[in-house]
Amino acid sequence: MLEKVKKRIGFGSSVREIGVLGALLLLILFFSITSPYFLKINNLLNIVRQISLMGIIAMGMTMIIVSGEIDLSVGAIYGASAIVAGMVLTNGGSVLLAILVALLVGAFFGLMNGVLSTYGRIPALIVTLGMMNIARGVALVICGARVISLSPRTVDAAGLDFFLFLGQGKVFNIPIISIIFIITVILSNFLYKHTIIGFRMRAVGGNSSAAKAAGLNRNLIKIFAFTITGVFCAIGGILNLSFLANVQGTTGNGLELDVIAAVIIGGTSLNGGEGTIIGTLIGVLIMGVLKNGIILLGVSPFFQMLIIGLVIIGAVAIDMWSRKS
After folding, report:
1. Is the Cβ–Cβ distance between 35 and 293 less than 8 Å?
2. Helix (H) or strand (E) holding 4
């Protein structure tokens, strides 16, 4: 039974990655020809910085979708975690305490999503849709619908400098945010591809009945995927607060759409069981290159939404056709 599961979850992964990588290279070639600014070092670093926060959350979303579920609350958890961190900092708390509490908030929301959608037997689509509103409401109530700003007047100067360095600092001209993103990708890929947990995620999403027959605890595996995604949302929210030095209750609104789009474009199947962290990384890069290139060409932001929507539909269509064939 385990051999059947292994065969099922391994089919077509490398082919998908190659196809998505080809699409990324074509996009880079197109924008390199049409815009003289695209291949500038500063612009490329800017792309990597811009995709980093979305990319961190996309690593977790990949695990959720591969496990056969989906999470619509990631943008709200991202915002709520940032609000909590900001409130702790502006009320005399240390940087370490603010980061810890924010991570716990993200983990809690993710855990609740997992428990309610598994042991509660409520579809994840409904649970996370409700949790999106709960997290957003909590964020607005905590901050009183006002902007929380970090400054020497509200936060200890020494702690503030360290916290802002996480989001605004650079090492060898590479943004710290991007370095954290790269570390997250490496750790996520190891967890997903080289540990028993990652194998079980793919097994549960690929064939739930076979996974159960093989003795896998499907509920715990899905709960883990939701919880780790909540933690990734918190990391993203903390870094966003550090970069902007302010946050408001609506932070992260709509972020879930970009995250899901990147994961799907990266070759992860909405049916579960198929997808890779590297594929998602390429999908995130495609989103970043596409948005950046469109801006450089002077195209209206409204067309960005239209084009990305078409790309998402095309990616899902290709996935469905490939599965049928």
Report:
1. yes
2. helix 2-10
**Threshold 0.85, pTM exceeds:** yes
| Tokens matching residue 131 | 């949790």
pLDDT digits (tens, 9 = 90+) for 26-40: 889 999 998 888 889
The alpha carbon of 322 is separated from its chain's Cα centroid by a whole number of angstroms, namely: 25
The winner for highest mean pLDDT among 195-199, 208-212, 318-322 is 195-199
How far is residue 45 from each of residues 109, 162, 296, measured CA to CA in Å? 32, 22, 15
Range 2-324 classified under CATH 1.10.1140: no
Residues near 50 by beta carbon (within 8 Å), at least 6 away in sequence: 288, 291, 292
148-149 and 170-171: which strand pairing?
Answer: unpaired
Q: What is the largest CA-CA distance in the chain?
A: 63
What residue ranges do the domains of the chain occupy? 2-324
pLDDT digits (tens, 9 = 90+) for 294-315: 888 888 777 777 877 787 777 7
